[in-house]
């Protein structure tokens, strides 16, 4: 360590010594030939008092040496002397005081106010602060008056190599393609040194590789990492760890160093062709497999990864190229062989295919390594299966006239068993497609016959499904659609296309077209419809109307004269015969109703009723309707008014049959005994004796004052409870101050004439232990169970 410290001191301070010798000493000339001198400590005499500079008197001001230096990280036992301030005004009488101010004055730097010596009292770090700006001044010791203007100077902290290089962004990761040529750039790294890059070699860095050779190299000054070996193969080794060192002092001995790691990953290139795992593949498939089903998979392995390993599969040769296809599965990187067309074991039992796998993305740099493809042979064996029947056609189209006779043959379907055993076939109709059972089929030969009459006008097409079933194996079933078209025959007579009603103006002219009519026919002839119109033979010489055939197959009705009067005849009926052009032709007679109406001068119909003549002049039908509506509204208002008046004059007394209390039904009350077969009547409780006296209203507060009741004498024990209830009920009914809810008073009265009598304990004169409940068994199962419960209770008490 002493030798290293000596080397560091010599390296740092040698330039300062040379500068010290060559630079002249400068003197700051103060006014009136007074000189202010600044002296510094010699670099070679650290910790000692520097010798005093010579003071030269000149007539003019000169440059002043305004910098001092102090070594960083100095930690001696005494404060280090940085420099000394001195002035010619100080004869040594100690009447001058030196004052120091600025950065760190008093805390880092301290001045002897008598001698002017400046000391560093703290350990300094150049990386924290490189220089300090201070101001020095000489003042009178007694008066503190300035003797000279203040002088500013700088104390610089000199650097030593106390910081090792650091890789701030490490560890590093980089990639380089495999098979790269020698010297391919991988990446570059950067280290930083906190020491002074200007002074000395403390921050001069040199890079080297500690681990990672001989695969990679590094430029010592730029730190660019390059490949040191050509054609590195990712499939052999994919990742490399490189340890990089940065050393200061230009890499010389004694310099500080720092290290980092660089992980280099080789990226893949397409330098390997695909290769099938085996040269021959065997697959078997039933002949009845569904089209598009995967039969098997073949795979060509590729050492590359990603898109460089993607391969496309094709069938390049074989006797089954038309029946099979191969597709590429991008996820599994294999080829899937699928069926394109149906197989037939009876026709061919095996197929041979030649498949090829070729890389999709080929790198032309490695095309010389050979073709990036491979081939394999695939043999497919077809297995026999019990197949369903096969129809001679996938669909059938049959035609039949709508007047075809029942049980006539419409057409025939045929099917066969493709298996070698050739089972017989049985035909049937899927009745879900023939709900009305209009057709039948012969189960043996497949002939379709008509079961019910057809009507083309109701349905032109009938779509049914024929089922073919093997007799030896009923699970083998095939279906085929059959479309039956019903052909038209002339079985419908023509008629008016709509319900026509013509209007004839009284002031119409002769030859005027009253109405144009058209006809329709439900039939559908091949050449279209053509209708013939005529009047009935007895109406040929009709004096009022005539007809005219139009080119568009319609008919116009014309008036023969004018002067029609609706008072004489309001309606005319004109029968018209319509015939079609079928074979044989059909005809029908349709009647046209013609009404005579009053019209305006321009022929607009205004009224067609005879009653219009009796209407008052100037009043239309709308006005009469409005007047009638007003009359009806007035009548309704009068009726409502009378009804309200009558309702207001009704007496407020509620009759017996309207008593609201009868609407209250209690379902938990016992009835009037076994003889009571009618609904519960609360009137019995109101007045069991049938007293039909006047009952005051209970729903309003009476105007009479409350009359206190007469006190009743105590009731003896032998009084009749029925009589007691009647008295209390009579009092309540005739008390006008009793509220409505007091009108319903139920005392458990059982009714008169009941065989069971009263079950109330009020009439019980004996104790429970003296009663016998056996008689309840005669009343029915429910009362029998009740008697058993009471009997058991009594037995428990005795026990």
Query: What's the number of helices?
Result: 5
User: Which structural class fits the helix and strand makeup?
Assistant: mainly beta
Give the strand order, joined by hyphens, for the main sheet.
Answer: 1-2-4-7-6
Mean pLDDT: 77
The rough form would be described as extended
Compute the separation of the termini in Å.
119 Å
Radius of gyration over C-alpha positions, nearest whole angstrom: 65 Å
Low-confidence region ranges? 1-65, 612-617, 653-662, 684-701
Number of strands: 43
Largest sheet: 5 strands, antiparallel
Estimate what percentage of residues fall within beta strands: 25-35%
Helix amount, in percent? Answer: 10-25%
Keywords: Calcium, Cell adhesion, Cell membrane, Cleavage on pair of basic residues, Glycoprotein, Membrane, Metal-binding, Repeat, Signal, Transmembrane, Transmembrane helix
Main location: membrane
Pfam families: CADH_Y-type_LIR, Cadherin
Protein name: Cadherin-8 isoform X1
Can you walk me through this structure?
Keywords: Calcium, Cell adhesion, Cell membrane, Cleavage on pair of basic residues, Glycoprotein, Membrane, Metal-binding, Repeat, Signal, Transmembrane, Transmembrane helix. This is Cadherin-8 isoform X1. With 799 residues, this protein is mostly beta strands. 11% of the residues lie in helices and 32% in strands. The chain contains five helices and 43 strands. The strands form twelve sheets. A five-stranded antiparallel beta sheet has the order 1-2-4-7-6, with no helix packed on it. Strands 36, 38, 41, 42 and 43 form a five-stranded mixed beta sheet that branches. A hairpin with a 4-residue loop joins strand 39 and strand 40 (554-559). The longest helix has 28 residues, at 621-648.
């Amino acid at each position: 360590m002493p030798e290293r410290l000596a080397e560091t001191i010599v390296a740092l301070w040698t330039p300062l010594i040379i500068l010290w010798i060559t630079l002249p000493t400068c003197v700051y000339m103060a006014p009136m030939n007074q000189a202010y001198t600044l002296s510094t400590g010699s670099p070679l005499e650290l910790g000692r008092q520097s010798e005093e500079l010579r003071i030269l008197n000149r007539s003019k001001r000169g440059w002043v040496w305004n910098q001092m230096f102090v070594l960083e990280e100095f930690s001696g036992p005494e404060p280090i002397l940085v420099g000394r301030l001195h002035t010619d005004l100080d004869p040594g009488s100690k009447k001058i005081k030196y004052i120091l101010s600025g950065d760190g004055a008093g805390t880092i730097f301290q001045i002897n106010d008598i001698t002017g010596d400046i000391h560093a009292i703290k350990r300094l770090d150049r990386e924290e602060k490189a220089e300090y700006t201070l101001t020095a001044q000489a003042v009178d010791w007694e008066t503190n008056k300035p003797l000279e203007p203040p002088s500013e100077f700088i104390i610089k902290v000199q650097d030593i190599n106390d910081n090792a290089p650091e890789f701030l962004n490490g560890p590093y990761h980089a990639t380089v393609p495999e098979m790269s040529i020698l010297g391919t750039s991988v990446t570059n790294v950067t280290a930083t040194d906190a020491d002074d890059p200007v002074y000395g070699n403390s921050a001069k860095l040199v890079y080297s590789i500690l681990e990672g050779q001989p695969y990679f190299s590094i430029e010592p000054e730029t730190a660019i990492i390059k490949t040191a070996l050509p054609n590195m193969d990712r499939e052999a080794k994919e990742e490399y760890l490189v340890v990089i060192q940065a050393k200061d002092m230009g890499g010389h001995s004694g310099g500080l160093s720092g290290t980092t790691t660089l992980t280099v990953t080789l990226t893949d290139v397409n330098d390997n062709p695909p290769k099938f795992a085996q040269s021959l593949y065997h697959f078997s498939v039933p002949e009845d497999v569904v089209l598009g089903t995967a039969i098997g998979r073949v795979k060509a392995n590729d050492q590359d990864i990603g898109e460089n390993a993607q391969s496309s599969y094709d069938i390049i040769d074989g006797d089954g190229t038309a029946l099979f296809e191969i597709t590429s599965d991008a996820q599994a990187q294999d080829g899937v062989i699928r069926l394109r067309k149906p197989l037939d074991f009876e026709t061919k039992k095996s197929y041979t295919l030649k498949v090829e796998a070729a890389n999709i993305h080929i790198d032309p740099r490695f095309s010389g390594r050979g073709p990036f493809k491979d081939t394999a042979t695939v043999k497919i064996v077809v297995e026999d299966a019990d197949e369903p029947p096969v129809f001679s056609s996938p669909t059938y189209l049959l035609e039949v006239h709508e007047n075809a006779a029942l049980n006539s043959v419409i057409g025939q379907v045929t099917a066969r068993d493709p298996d070698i055993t050739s089972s017989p076939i049985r035909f049937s109709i899927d009745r879900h497609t023939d709900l009305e059972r209009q057709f039948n089929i012969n189960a043996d030969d497949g002939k379709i016959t008509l079961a019910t009459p057809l009507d083309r006008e109701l349905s032109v097409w009938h779509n049914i499904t024929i089922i073919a079933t093997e007799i030896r194996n009923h699970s083998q079933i095939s279906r085929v659609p059959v479309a039956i078209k019903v052909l038209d025959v002339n079985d419908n007579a023509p008629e008016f296309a709509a319900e026509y009603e013509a209007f004839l103006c009284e002031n119409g002219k002769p030859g005027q077209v009253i109405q144009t009519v058209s006809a329709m026919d439900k039939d559908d002839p091949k050449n279209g419809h053509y209708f013939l119109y005529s009047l009935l033979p007895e109406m040929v010489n009709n004096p009022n109307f005539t007809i005219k055939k139009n080119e568009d197959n319609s008919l116009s009705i014309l008036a023969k004269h004018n002067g029609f009067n609706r008072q004489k005849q309001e309606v005319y009926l004109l029968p018209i015969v319509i015939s079609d052009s079928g074979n044989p032709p059909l005809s029908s007679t349709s009647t046209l109703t013609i009404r005579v109406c009053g019209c305006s001068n321009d022929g607009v119909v205004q009224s067609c009723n005879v009653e219009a003549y009796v209407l008052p002049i100037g009043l239309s039908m709308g006005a009469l309707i409005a007047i009638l509506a007003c009359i009806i509204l007035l009548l309704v208002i009068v009726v409502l008014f009378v009804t309200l008046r009558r309702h207001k004059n009704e007496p407020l007394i509620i009759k017996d049959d309207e008593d609201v209390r009868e609407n209250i039904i209690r379902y938990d009350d016992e009835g009037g005994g076994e003889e009571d077969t009618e609904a519960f009547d609360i009137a019995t409780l109101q007045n069991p004796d049938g007293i039909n006296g006047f009952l005051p209203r209970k729903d309003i507060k009476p105007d009479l004052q409350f009359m206190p009741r007469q006190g009743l004498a105590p009731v003896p024990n032998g009084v009749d409870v029925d009589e007691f209830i009647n008295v209390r009920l009579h009092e309540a009914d005739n008390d006008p101050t009793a509220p409505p809810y007091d009108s319903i008073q139920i005392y458990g009265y059982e009714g008169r004439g009941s065989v069971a009598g009263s079950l109330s304990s009020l009439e019980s004169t004996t104790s429970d232990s003296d009663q016998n409940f056996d008689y309840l068994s005669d009343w029915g199962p429910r009362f029998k169970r009740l008697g058993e419960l009471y009997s058991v209770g009594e037995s428990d008490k005795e026990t």
